[in-house]
């Protein structure tokens, strides 16, 4: 028997839908339960691989998952066991779950890949975060939909955004849909949440220019000096930026719209603004 086979055979089975660990995983789909237990779900090989990457960075406040549930019959690749062993080495409890329970009870996906973890929500203090330099930070003001939040995080990671600030947050960053839409980049980007007034104090105390995004006749993307430390302000899907951020912005930038729609989906607009300085 190989080391991998021995590892799998030594994992306990959870075979009842009434098992407390499985019931807890199901309840973590609910925001109130996530808040109460200060825990959230991470599903999928790609997402858990990035979670492990975030753990290795050390400065993002992540701790090893408490529990990792797996179903070998649902694995899609050949590296899942290595991932399980890496988490087990960090102290995570690893349990085998039958395919019918994993697919029907635990997973959020049409085609689950047999991996789901329960992890502690990281505790972070913005005022203890002191990067050596500031390039571009995205400030997301009252974003409402977890899928949009996750998509923005994915674009931000790809475009080299340094950090994400959630201003007066409405949606839960640890919602399973946000985690999934981010494809795990939630675990590799510094993310902070707070009141708009506190976030502004942090940004202005570090000389960050505040660039508000707004449909209409703001400045063109190419007219902004993106080489300065920049806080890019993006508003909610329904209402856009709050009056607070519009009043305190140093400049307002807009995207041209040529059709009948007067605005873009916030995740689409975010991606354009994130990549604009890279394209030139």
Q: TL;DR?
A:
By secondary structure, this protein is an alpha/beta fold. 37% of the residues lie in helices and 17% in strands. The protein has eleven helices and ten strands.
Written overview of the protein:
This is Putative rRNA methylase. Keywords: Methyltransferase, Transferase. InterPro entries: Alpha/beta_knot_MTases, MRM3-like_sub_bind, Ribosomal_eL30-like_sf, rRNA_Methyltransferase, SpoU_MeTrfase, tRNA_m1G_MTases_N. The structure is a single chain. This protein is of the alpha/beta class and 280 residues long. The protein has two domains: 3-120, 60s Ribosomal Protein L30, Chain: A; 131-279, SPOUT methyltransferase, trefoil knot domain (Alpha/beta knot, 3-Layer(aba) Sandwich). It has helices at residues 3-9, 20-27, 31-37, 45-57, 80-89, 99-106, 146-159, 176-181, 196-205, 243-248, 266-279; strands at residues 39-43, 67-70, 93-96, 115-120, 136-141, 163-167, 191-194, 209-213, 230-234, 251-253. The strands form two sheets. A six-stranded parallel sheet has the order 7-6-5-9-8-10, with helices on both faces. Strand 5 (136-141), helix 7 and strand 6 form a beta-alpha-beta unit. The longest helix is centred in the middle third of the chain and has 14 residues, at 146-159. It is elongated, with a radius of gyration of 21 Å. The mean pLDDT is 94.
